[in-house]
Amino acid sequence: MVNLSVISTIIVQAAMISALYALIAIGFTLIFGVGGVLNLAHGATITMGAFSAYYAGQFGLGVPGAVLASVTIPALFAGVLYLGMVKRLEDEPIMVMITTLVVSVVIEQAIVVFEGTTSRALPPLIQGQFSIAGSTFQNLLGAMFVVSWLLIGLLFLFVNYTKTGKGILAVSMSHKGASLVGIKSSRINLITWIIAGAFAGIAGLFLGSWLTADFAMGQAQLVLSFSIVVVGGIGSIRGSVIGAYLIGFLEIATTNLVSSSLQGLAPLVVLVVVLLVKPEGLFGREFTE
Amino acid sequence: MVNDGSSSGAGSANGSKEIGDEYNGNKSKLNRRRFIQAAGVGAAATGFAGCLGGGPGESSEGIPSEVTLGVLAPAPENNPIGAAIANSAELAAQQINNSDELLGAADNVTASIKNTEESPSTGRQRYRELTLDEGAHMTTGVFTSEVLLQLMDPIAQQKTVHMTTGAASPKASNQVNENYEKYKYHFRTGPVNGYHLGQNMVDFLEAKSSDLGWESVALLVENYEWTNPVQKAIDDHIGDLDVDVVMEERYASGTSNFGPVYDSVEESGADAAFVAMAHTGTPAIVQWAEDQRPFEFGGIHVLSQLPAYYGMTNGACRYTITQNTATPQSDLTDKTMPYVESYNEAYDAYPVYTGYITFDAIMQWATVATERGTVNADEVVTGLEESSYTGTAGSLDYYGPDHEYAHDIKYNFSADSRPDEGVNPVFQQWQETDGSGSQEVLHPSYVSTTDYTAPPWV
């Protein structure tokens, strides 16, 4: 029988996991919405965030160093990836997919070479636990929930109320129109890639702290990102957040009420169902021309 | 440093030194026609090896001046399990070279190390390089059962003694039992095979459950090939114990979020999670410690067997128990500590269990070959079958051809006294001493270094 305690546990757990999923997916949808290209290195960028924090811990830089490294290194990497490769291929989305896929494989293999295939534990970000309705949860997951919403809020404010943010909106609506009013789309794209990299890095930090880090951890996150943005509507930030919560709740409910061996199945089922029933997603594509 | 194998290779074991050298590109004047001829002869020889009785097993007599030990290790550059295999093989080769007695007739013994990448196809390719190109006189290593099972036929074809030092699948020894003449060149020096790993878990629980205070357990087994025989043995024997199995879950391979699994364990009210984990071990152990789950944790946790694991998990493995072949704290035989110290001196680290076993395998092979005065594979097979060799992990004795686990190391559980025959794996607990972790031994009592300490949050 499903009692009240189980339901409250599912709700709290799902809210926290979904917040992480939103962090994971936002960068992916941002790049597609603004640049019109799919960044298949997104999962590897998440992995990079986790391993940046791991190395910071190994070098004795503590939690502040780990947080800083997990944000700056993936953000810089994403910026360099855009300037070095994607910018030259922007008009060829297939080439961007192939290139970013290759970069993703290179990053994973580099981790295998230097660190092997064994999972690594990150320095504990926040220790301790808290209780809600008789169920106990890690403080880390609570912090993840707060940070996720804080960052989503800041991104919303940035996009809607700053000049650069409005530039991002303009480029996402129309490259030509943005150019006509003097907005340099390449600069906006660069900023978008850096923001997406930073979001992926933070997602990697939390994911790695929670579940440990390994070379292939980004693969499942890339699939998850796909599912979330397809459910929400490709290119829609709001849709991605809602998609993340939909998939998060479905996954937690499945693993708690049906079987824990069904982890990872929910995003794929939802992906297939949405593609068949409502291929444009819940919120369409807000920023398309 | 780990040898990548490119510099060694006797190539003379089956009279193919010239061919081997040319094929390796070691000779600069490579005549294309001769290469094609040689390749053709080599391919034909390989293809007919099984029916014509060729290969080193029958053509090698005596102890050659150059002896090559072929070593198959998973990613020896960065995988601690592979590194221990590679380093211990190098150490064994060095000690044989320094010994006047072992293989005294040989001028030089070299270990040629190849990376299997934990892939069956790569493993087969590397095995062929070792035996065909480099003429290895014996091969050892192999960590992954999937790789080993794909090597059984090449081993039979090459008729070269292979001593497995990591993979635990009993299917290999079943093959030896069912078709002895074909597969007799395979021995498993360790660890004990998968079925005995499971039986060992149950034996330990029977002997120590009252000391541990475990009246009920939740059995958590990861869904990989290696756990099939482990789970079968547990299912066969655990019912005989006074310990209740209140939950049993064979969770999906690749599981990274253990929250739902641990929630179920909590609901079951088990005193401990009794586990068989390798690939999924780190997320499982880190989440158990960070969540401070109200149950204890023990069984076979392969990664906890690594001496460096405490650092790798920031101490999350503290209080957990795992079975192990040996630890730097377990003085199993008079050879254990000298080996651990030599290893530490040479590599500034402590060996993983595959290291003890690989060292033992090579030393036992060298001892048998020396006693028989030959590296001839058939002679060595007979010698190994009759051998009872004291290694670092215990007494190395193998089951005979008629046993269902033919040529596997004998498993001999004993709580309080050293078994005369076979090995008796240890059970260790990670404890903290002076801020760093150590693998203290709980069982067996004759090498025990500590009493069990339960996690303070349980």
TrEMBL record, chain A:
Can you name this protein? Answer: Amino acid/amide ABC transporter membrane protein 1, HAAT family
Which Gene Ontology CC terms are recorded?
plasma membrane
Cellular localisation: Cell membrane
A single GO molecular function, which one? transmembrane transporter activity
Does this entry carry the keyword Protein biosynthesis?
no
* Transmembrane domains' residue ranges: 6-30, 37-57, 63-83, 95-114, 140-159, 190-211, 223-250, 257-277
| Topological type in the membrane | Multi-pass membrane protein
One Pfam family in the UniProt entry: BPD_transp_2
From TrEMBL, chain B:
InterPro entries given in the database record: BCAA_transport, Leu-bd, Peripla_BP_I, TAT_signal, TAT_signal_bac_arc
The UniProt entry, under Gene3D superfamilies, shows: 3.40.50.2300
**A Pfam family reported for this protein in Swiss-Prot or TrEMBL:** Peripla_BP_6
Provenance organism: Halorientalis persicus
Composition bias of kind Low complexity appears in 1-16
- Domain Leucine-binding protein per the UniProt entry, residue ranges: 80-409
The name this protein goes by in its record: Amino acid/amide ABC transporter substrate-binding protein, HAAT family
> Does Acyltransferase show up as a keyword for this record?
no
Please name the CDD domains in this protein's record: PBP1_ABC_ligand_binding-like (cd06345)
